[in-house]
Design goal:
Elements lengths: L9 E5 L6 H13 L4 E5 L9 H11 L3 H4 L13 E4 L13 E4 L10 H24 L3
Parallel strand pairs: 1-2, 1-3, 3-4
Length: 140
């Protein structure tokens, strides 16, 4: 895999709206794997803000204020990436060229209970850590 200038691959977490799952993945990627990869998120449609339940829960669970450093973005607003992670769109997922692509198949917790959000957040954390380990070990 070609690496960018600082030696870390760039990872894009993508979904249609870039307001919930992909934003949480970007935040947790920065939190747990900043030493291994650069995290970005984007979508094909723009929402005016990050999902407020996601903002609240990520702040509550990890003390990360997503709104301080993140905002909804379209695909063309992020740099070229090495790895694309699709959140699980259940529709036609956005396409970004990359050297590796995964679909994490995560349900959208938008409009659901905090418990439903926490299940998805736990899966994102687990997947981010596993991705970091694959990169660290040279598997990717």
């Amino acid at each position: 895999m070609k690496l960018n200038v600082n030696g870390k691959p760039k990872v894009a977490f993508i979904c249609v709206h870039n307001s919930c799952r992909s934003q949480m993945a970007e935040a947790l990627g920065k939190h747990f794997a900043e030493d291994v990869f650069e995290s970005y998120s984007a979508g094909t449609e723009m929402r005016p803000q990050i999902n407020q339940d996601a903002v609240r829960l990520i702040k509550e669970l990890y003390n990360i204020d997503m709104e301080a450093t993140q905002r909804p973005k379209l695909l063309h607003e992020i740099p070229e990436v090495d790895i694309v992670i699709k959140m699980g769109c259940n529709v036609i997922c956005p396409f970004l060229p990359s050297q590796h692509e995964e679909d994490w198949g995560l349900d959208d917790p938008s409009g659901k209970s905090d418990e439903a959000f926490k299940i998805i957040i736990d899966k994102i954390e687990e997947n981010v850590k596993a991705l970091a380990e694959k990169i660290r070990s040279g598997e990717l």
